[in-house]
Amino acid sequence: MDDGVTMDDETTRLLRRALALAAEARASGNPPFGSLLAGPDGAVLAEERNSSVTDDDITAHPELKLARWAARELDPATAAATTMYTSCQPCGMCAGALERSGLGRVVYALSGEQLTGLKSPAAKAGFPHVPQEGPALYDEARVPVEGYY
């Protein structure tokens, strides 16, 4: 048992592959994150590395790319039986995409808190907070939404 995750041989193998993908991302000049999807039978369906620097795309996280792939390529039953193995706990952006992807579960090697502990003081400062204001214009804003869900 490792922090609540049952560490059998298959889980260990798949998490180690995600870590290798993270190392590949770092070696190519990107942030060190990697992920893969394992289908219901344990076979690897898709792999991704972070490519946010080389693609000049702040959203090019491996978890987001795989969530999009799964939502597009997998039928709902297969997606629900699929597990993402990832080098680090998904960020808020990726977590939102994963919730919408239909994937069954995520297993990660490094928690967000552990990641923060490994960062330099400058990196710990992170991204600047963007203030959000609202809600506003409820009566108008609800018109395009009502009845959709």
Morphology call: globular
Q: Biggest β-sheet: count, sense, barrel?
A: 4 strands, mixed
Number of DSSP-assigned strands: 4
Structural class category: alpha+beta
Helix content: 40-55%
Q: Strands of the biggest beta sheet: in what spatial order?
A: 2-1-3-4
Strand content: 15-25%
Rg result: 18 Å
Q: Give the rounded overall mean pLDDT.
A: 95
Low-confidence stretches: none
Layout: helices, strands, pairs:
Blueprint: H1 9-27, E1 34-38, E2 44-49, H2 62-73, H3 76-80, E3 83-88, H4 92-101, E4 105-110, H5 112-118, H6 121-124, H7 138-141
Parallel strand pairs: 3-4
Antiparallel strand pairs: 1-2, 1-3
Brief descriptors of the model:
149 residues; alpha+beta
Write structural notes for this entry.
The structure is a single chain. With 149 residues, this protein is of the alpha+beta class. The protein has helices at residues 9-27, 62-73, 76-80, 92-101, 112-118, 121-124, 138-141; strands at residues 34-38, 44-49, 83-88, 105-110. A four-stranded mixed beta sheet has the order 2-1-3-4, sandwiched between helices. α2 packs parallel to α4. It is globular and about 55 Å long. The relative contact order is 0.13.
Concise overview:
The protein is of the alpha+beta class. The protein is built from 7 helices and 4 strands; from the N terminus they run αββααβαβααα.
